[in-house]
Specification:
Length: 298
């Protein structure tokens, strides 16, 4: 199962209350008691499909059939008459059974709501030092490799599209996310979105950020790659390879500077020596011939 990126924040967004009578709707009702949840369902209007109302504070979830008619038309436990009139009829509500899957998902979503202060947004770090990427031969990749190797990028984004990425981060979100992904149909029925921004940290300390939206594919956040000393690694652009800028590598950051030079060379940048400023790499783009040249210290 996949769930896709969010810098991942975890966010739950209610996708609108349907005004159409024939459409089922899922809504939140924070701190609502049973009576208030029933009233919320009734306010959505009659329809052919049940409405789901849930309380993100404690995970309570209920399903209601809302219809036009009198009590004898009810099924199951019987209708509870309401005072609402819709299109010339009296709106009735009926409590319906809630599936175990939906109860589990609502409880997990409530945990996420509480862990994120009600925002459903989160940012986590996931260290992939101990992970292997079978189709990528080097055993310890870096952000540089992520930027220039399509296979490695695919494997990391695939990893980030599973619950394993949460388990690598030691975040308390891991538990509820695993529960949700085990009951994905119920999660989909709740019409919620969970968003997470994940900093993928490599063995050398470099990192990239991916955005994860639960049950979708993770995506790379443009211009988020940095080396272990915090220097930006420009995103490859093969149609217009313009990479102007200045990068300063002070004493002690020689390995990062060497890796940066090699990375820029892999993008087709011309590397020349002659910089008078120790540790400073200056890159200029020539729009006439669509090339970038970087001058590195002697």
């Amino acid at each position: 199962m996949v769930f896709g990126k969010w810098k991942t924040w975890v966010a739950v967004a209610v996708l609108g209350v349907a005004a159409q009578a024939a459409q089922a709707t899922t809504v939140q009702c924070s701190n609502c008691n049973e009576g208030q949840m029933q009233a919320k369902a009734k306010s959505l209007g009659a329809g052919s499909s049940p409405h789901i109302v849930w309380n993100p504070v404690n995970g309570d979830v209920r399903r209601y059939r809302v219809y036009c008619g009198s009590a004898p038309n009810a099924i199951g436990e019987g209708a509870k008459a309401g005072a609402t009139t819709q299109a010339g009829c009296t709106t009735q509500t009926e409590d319906l059974q809630v599936s175990a899957d939906l109860v589990t998902v609502a409880g997990a979503m409530s945990q996420i709501w509480n862990q994120t202060g009600g925002t459903f947004k989160a940012q986590i770090n996931a260290n992939v030092t101990g992970q292997s990427f079978p189709a990528y031969l080097p055993s310890k990749p870096s952000a540089h490799d992520f930027q220039r190797d399509a296979q490695l990028r695919y494997e990391i984004l695939n990893l980030a599209s599973t619950s394993q990425i949460f388990q690598l981060s030691n975040t308390p979100l891991a538990g509820p996310v695993v529960q949700i992904l085990a009951h994905i149909d119920a999660f989909t029925a709740m019409t919620q979105g969970v968003f997470v921004s994940v900093d993928i940290v490599f063995a050398d300390g470099s990192k990239v950020t991916v955005m994860v939206k639960l049950n979708e594919n993770a995506t790379y956040v443009a211009n988020s790659a940095v080396d272990s000393s915090g220097h930006t690694l420009v995103d490859p652009n093969y149609s217009t390879p313009a990479y102007p800028g200045r990068w300063y590598f002070p004493p002690g950051q020689g390995p990062d500077m060497a890796a940066f030079i090699e990375y820029m060379r892999s993008l087709g940048v011309t590397i020349t020596s002659g910089s008078a400023n120790g540790g400073v790499i200056t890159c200029n783009w020539n729009p006439t011939n669509n090339t970038t040249t970087c001058v590195v210290p002697n």
